[in-house]
Design goal:
This protein is about 75% helix and about 0% strand. It is mainly alpha-helical. Strand 1 and strand 2 form a beta hairpin. The chain is globular and about 60 Å long.
């Protein structure tokens, strides 16, 4: 189950455009400062920061924009601190994305080579053998992710907020990382067959790996920054958890049936890695899946083999069942939004996110 970019927030309003512009400027300033800081270090370390800047340049910024728009729609006035925390969430997402690609052995991200692939390719071009080049690429990517994890925490720690609120925000970010690590480990264990993975456990893994840091945490952080009552923050968190499950369900579908030109990633990754997604759980036990299951998780899975697996997932009804579950989760999320006592513009914004999450193609 790969980590990909989330559905776009609704765009076009002046505040949304201003938020994106300010965020892009702050993100670029961050990477430029790190490039300046790396001067005097090895050329490969400077290249690491250039590759990170390139990789970060293609995101939809859903997590920071969700935080910034929610802060504004809750009547928040801490624009500078909100922007700093929003930057932290984008750095956190990039870090987890880089680490996820290492774990999944993926080499593509956002329509091009990811950080592992870029460093491995350069090493091979310099005459290093394939095995050592891969080790170099993965080591560089691992370190890059570590650097961004630390940076995300540092950005929150440097906000100009009262100590208690700053501690609360740090706890929110820490909880997001904690849950993501737990979910990632479960995801790997399920794929390796080390732990049993029924649909309930898979949904729990999805909520931990994706929903926690991608939706729940930004919404909680926005409520803290806006000075909203704790109860409202809790209700927003519940919306975020459900919205994150929608995103991950759609991600599972795109991982097998999506167009790589839209997703920016191969449509063989989850099938090649033997990811225990809801699609596979729904297919398990059917004669159609039993006939082709030997291809699932095959290291050398090619396009023809992937097509055979996709056909089985459709013919046994797994795809249709997941699409129904996705719609059911969307109805549940809309109900949570309607009962949360949110300002109407915020409720409308989050409701639009639900539909976007169900229909997105990237």
């Amino acid at each position: 189950m790969t980590t990909v970019d989330s559905p776009r927030l609704s765009a076009g309003s002046r505040p949304a455009i201003a938020h994106r512009d300010a965020l892009e400027q702050r993100l670029d300033e961050y990477f430029l400062s790190q490039l300046d800081r790396s001067v005097g270090h090895d050329a490969s370390f400077q290249e690491l920061w250039m590759q990170l800047r390139r990789l970060a340049g293609g995101g939809k910024r859903v997590r920071p924009l969700l935080l910034l728009s929610t802060h504004r729609l809750l009547g928040g006035a801490r624009d500078e601190d909100a922007l700093r925390v929003a930057l932290a969430f984008e750095l956190l997402h990039t870090a987890l994305m880089v680490h996820d690609d290492i774990i999944d052995k993926d080499l593509e991200r956002r329509g091009g080579p990811n950080l592992t692939a870029a460093f491995a390719s350069a090493a091979e071009a310099a005459g290093v053998g394939a095995r050592k080049a891969t080790a170099w690429g993965e080591a560089s990517a691992l370190l890059a992710g570590d650097l961004l994890l630390a940076a995300a925490v540092r950005e929150v720690a440097e906000t100009d907020l009262p100590a208690q609120e700053r501690r609360t925000l740090l706890r929110i970010v820490d909880d997001g990382i904690f849950l993501a690590a737990s979910g990632e480990q479960s995801d790997v264990a399920f794929g390796l067959g080390l732990e049993a993975a029924d649909t309930i456990r898979i949904r729990t893994m999805m909520a931990r790996k994706t929903a926690g840091y991608s939706f729940e945490a930004p919404l909680r952080a926005a409520a803290v920054l806006a000075g909203a009552p704790a109860g409202l923050g809790d209700r927003l968190a519940a919306v975020g958890r459900s919205l994150g499950v929608i995103f991950q369900m759609r991600d599972d579908l795109l991982g097998a049936f999506g167009d790589p030109r839209s997703t920016g990633k191969t449509d063989r990754g989850d099938l090649r890695e033997g990811k225990r997604t809801l699609l596979v759980a729904f297919a398990d036990g059917s004669p159609q899946w039993a006939a082709v299951a030997h291809l699932w998780g095959a290291e050398g899975l090619d396009d023809d083999g992937a097509a055979v697996l996709r056909s089985a997932l459709e013919s046994c009804g797994a795809r249709e069942r997941l699409e129904r579950e996705l719609e059911d989760e969307a109805v549940r999320t809309l109900g949570l939004i309607a009962s949360a006592g949110l300002p109407e513009p915020l409720a409308a914004e989050l409701s639009a996110q639900v539909r976007s999450g169900v229909e997105r193609e990237s």
